[in-house]
Amino acid sequence: MLKLSFTVFPILETERLILREHTPADAQAWFDLRNNPDVMRYIDRDSPKDIAEVEDYINGLITGFEQGESMGWVVALKDDPSKMIGNVVFWRMDFPNYRAEIGYLLTPLHWRKGLVSEALKAIISFAFEEMGLHSIEANINPENEASRAILLKHGFVKEAYFKEDYYFNGKFLDSEIYSLITDR
Q: Which tens digit of pLDDT belongs to each residue from 130-172?
């Protein structure tokens, strides 16, 4: 069975990005990101109501890493590594099957610059080579064409389309599931 046993949080670098651990100092940026209507347009989850809720979430990410249960990176520009502009998280870890679900967000100011693609390339490589994942899953709102395009660009394939499998804000919603399987 897969186990995550990193003693130090793995900081990843790309040409323009630092992918680092979440810290309590990221709370305001995370709160702003998750309360931005453009960011949340296709994220069918409630936004945090206050900073305390975000602090609990960040503490959960830190604890999840320490206990080997999850991995989540802050996306920051190299020229300002302390400023969170997004995140990429592996959650819903399926350890017996070496599989995890990935989620990602980025502030609209940085959309359409290839930054999500740059972050995903590094994190997918890390997931297969260092974490030992066999497959990565992504669950998207079928209307989210940008997310679909980025997944397809990185080799994900559509596995399923679920009709009205998710209930949020008084409506049943559809889901599209994509996956990427390691070639190693």
A: 999 999 999 999 999 999 999 999 999 999 999 999 999 999 9
Q: Quick check: is 176 in a domain? A: yes
Question: Dihedral of the CA atoms 158, 150, 21, 93 (nearest 10)?
Answer: 0
Contact 122, 19 (CB under 8 A): yes
Domain holding 162: CATH number? Answer: 3.40.630.30
Average pLDDT over residues 162-184: 95
Phi-psi region of 90 (alpha: psi -120 to 50; beta: other; left: phi over 0): beta
Give CA–CA dist 92/43, Å, rounded. 16
Q: CB neighbours (10 Å) of residue 30?
A: 23
